[in-house]
Amino acid sequence: ERVESGDKEKPGFKDFHARRLVETAGHIIITYLLARQAGECEEYVNSARIFVKLAEGKIGEAYTYVMNSSLDDVDLFKAVEQEC
Predict the structure, then answer these.
(1) In angstroms, rounded to a whole number, what is the distance separating the alpha carbons of residues 74 and 15?
(2) Three-state DSSP state, 53
(3) Tell me, what DSSP letter sits at residue 82?
C-alpha cells in the first residue's frame, strides 16, 4: 500500500522498490513451498527451518528499507542510475 500510494505521488517510486518487492515475493513463495514439502516429507524439515530464518531476515530488511525510504529517494536513484 505504501509503495502504491507513493507511486501516485511520485511516478517511479514503485520502480525504485521493484527489486525488493520481487525478492520478498520470492522468499515468501519459496518458504511456502519448503513448508509444504516439509509437511509431506521429514527430509525437508531442516531445510525449511533454515530457510524460514533466512527469509525472515531478508523480508525484514526489505520492509525496513521500503518503510524508511522517501519520495525524494526516487530522484537520487535516477541520478545514480544516470552516472553509470
Answers:
(1) 9
(2) helix
(3) H
Instruction: Give pTM, 2 decimals.
Output: 0.73
Residue 21 has φ and ψ, to the nearest 5°, of -65, -40
Tens-place pLDDT, residues 11-70: 888 888 888 899 999 999 999 999 999 999 999 999 999 999 999 999 999 999 999 999
3-state helix, strand, coil in the chain (%, to 5): 90, 0, 10
- Give 41: exposed, middle or buried? Use CB within 10 Å, 0-12, 13-18, 19+: exposed
Map out the domains of the chain as residue ranges.
2-83
Query: C-alpha grid cell for residue 34?
Result: 519448503
